[in-house]
Design goal:
Elements lengths: L5 E3 L2 E4 L3 H25 L11 H9 L15 H6 L7 H29 L5 E3 L4 H18 L5 H11 L7 H24 L8 H6 L52
Antiparallel strand pairs: 1-2, 2-3
Helix pairs in contact: 1-4, 1-5, 4-5, 5-7, 6-7
């Protein structure tokens, strides 16, 4: 049975059963394949013949969108639209942002998911402070994928997914996905909780007085600090208010087609 992530002297760790690690790794592989399929559809020029220096391959991917002028259309697949969302409500601007930045965003997500697969090869699942955010982003992309497949668009949908996850033992595809979604949400929440456990305090009234500030500028005692999972979505425990359409952990959780998720 899986145990929650907890802070250690070297980072963070959680104990996962072999079938749980295999399931998460398989989901990562599926999302990687989906992201790579989007890249295949955009290949206008053949790959250069012969071996290519990895450094040049990286820059070619980064600059792939700079050679054209036409806006890039959003993906048709609903999951890809959530993983690679528009960066603007204006279709023309969104297409231009997507042309310039989608390759970089997609590459960073693939790299996160590959790192997660590597971490899932051993038990316990352990990572240092630098790698923990990468694993958290990968878990979030798995949640986005499952939320899209479960048609999670509202608070009512969130309740439906919860009921599917805790329902009778006779399972269909949706109830199985709901169970996985709930498990990944819990795992991500415990990782974020462990990461915020030892954050510096926001300050006290005595600190403010010493600094000459008549009143403390931080949150009142007992209030959750910004980014604390206790202040997040009551349904998912995400560190920011969740997106009712996806169970997203916040407006920037998927990176945006005009931003970087790394």
């Amino acid at each position: 049975m899986a145990t929650a992530f907890r802070a250690t002297t070297t980072g963070y760790r959680a104990d996962l059963e072999q079938h749980e690690r295999r399931l998460l790794s398989s989901l990562c592989a599926d999302v990687i394949a989906l992201l790579e399929s989007r890249e295949d559809l955009q290949q206008d020029d053949p790959t250069p013949s012969g071996a290519e220096d990895p450094a040049f391959a990286h820059f070619r991917a980064e600059l792939a969108g700079l050679g054209g002028e036409e806006p890039l259309a959003p993906p048709e697949d609903e999951v890809l639209r959530r993983l690679l969302p528009d960066a603007s409500n204006d279709p023309e601007q969104a297409g231009q942002f997507r042309r310039l930045s989608e390759n970089s965003l997609r590459s960073s997500k693939i790299a996160d998911l590959r790192t997660a697969r590597m971490l899932l090869e051993s038990t316990p699942v352990s990572m240092d402070e630098d790698v923990a955010p990468i694993f958290g982003r990968a878990l979030n992309d798995l949640r986005l994928t499952l939320a899209s497949r479960l048609r999670l668009h509202s608070a009512e949908d969130a309740e439906r997914v919860h009921n599917l996850a805790v329902g009778p033992s006779a399972k269909d595809t949706d109830s199985f996905m709901a169970e996985i979604y709930t498990f990944i949400t819990w795992l991500q929440e415990t990782l974020f909780s462990a990461m915020t456990e030892f954050l510096p305090d926001q300050g006290t009234a005595d600190d403010a007085a010493d600094a000459g500030d008549p009143e403390p500028s931080g949150p009142a005692a007992g209030d959750p600090a910004p980014g604390d999972p206790e202040a997040g979505d009551p349904e998912t425990g995400d560190p920011e208010a969740g997106d009712p359409e996806t169970g997203d952990s916040g407006p920037d959780a998927s990176g945006g087609a005009g931003t970087s998720s790394r």
